[in-house]
Design a protein that fits this description.
Elements: E1 14-20, H1 25-37, H2 39-42, E2 44-51, H3 57-64, E3 69-71, H4 80-92, E4 98-101, H5 110-116, E5 120-124, H6 136-143, E6 147-154, E7 164-171, H7 181-206, E8 209-211, E9 214-216
Parallel strand pairs: 1-2, 1-4, 2-3, 4-5
Antiparallel strand pairs: 5-6, 6-7, 8-9
Helix pairs in contact: 1-7, 4-5
This protein binds 5-O-phosphono-beta-D-ribofuranosylamine.
5-O-phosphono-beta-D-ribofuranosylamine binds near residues 24, 125 and 192.
Length: about 220
């Protein structure tokens, strides 16, 4: 007989809502690790995946894993504030302990942050505070930086400005051409996936405090 699914509120297992806009390989890394380790050992499970658009691999990955999904498109709302309110409501409906932006390509607004600030984690493909924004990989390459990487941080009211939890370094090689953004991004994502999985698990299992710009994980 198949064993019963874990209860929706398993004690000690934190609830994650993951937001995606694209391929969802970071989401997949979280799902695979939770599947391998089990939610109790990992400390968390993904209870829902949200997106700002239909037709993306990230949503397919969630559906394939049997995870509830929701889509909240800006164009379905009269303005950005209304979208933000709807996204906050759709996310809150799944009662997350942590919300993870894993390649979610929208800046959330005040309503969302008033609700989820301090427990909304983002991963960015550059070493913040250098190269914030939507083109972190391309900008580091164009600048001629010798190293770049990824930053897992809490989201605040600025763009990629919130307290840093962890960073991973990736070398920019002499032979990385200005057109080589995709290859560099692929190397960053190898590091990023492992870092995100490690950080989210650590936050879930140990808890944390945010003191000014410092994130303290016991
Ligand atoms: C990641 O590199 C993330 O930092 C950036 O977009 C990428 C998302 O990749 N914002 P995926 O959708 O998880 O594969």
């Amino acid at each position: 007989m198949a064993s019963a699914p874990p209860p929706d509120h398993a004690p000690g297992v934190k609830r994650l809502v993951v937001l995606v806009s694209g391929t969802g390989s970071n989401l997949q890394a979280l799902l695979d690790t939770i599947e391998e380790q089990g939610p109790e050992r990992y400390g968390a499970r993904v209870v829902a995946v949200g997106a700002d658009r239909e037709g993306i691999t990230g949503l397919e990955r969630a559906r394939a894993a049997g995870i509830p999904t929701f889509v909240c498109r800006v164009k379905d709302h009269p303005d950005r504030a209304a979208w933000d309110l709807a996204l906050a409501g759709a996310t809150a409906a799944h009662a997350p302990d942590l919300v993870v932006s894993a390649g979610f390509m929208k800046i959330v607004g005040k309503e969302f942050l008033d609700r989820f600030g301090g427990r909304f984690v983002n991963t960015h493909p550059a070493l913040l505070p250098s190269f914030p924004g939507a083109h972190g990989v391309r900008d580091a390459l164009a600048y001629g930086a010798k190293v770049t990487g990824c930053t897992v941080h809490f989201v605040d009211y600025g763009v990629d400005t919130g307290p840093i939890i962890a960073q991973g370094v990736v070398e920019i090689r002499e032979d990385d051409s200005p057109e080589g953004e995709a290859a560099l991004h692929a190397r960053i994502k190898d590091v990023e996936r492992a870092l995100l999985v490690e950080v989210v698990g650590r936050l879930a299992r140990h808890g944390y405090r945010i003191e000014g710009r410092k994130v303290l994980v016991p």
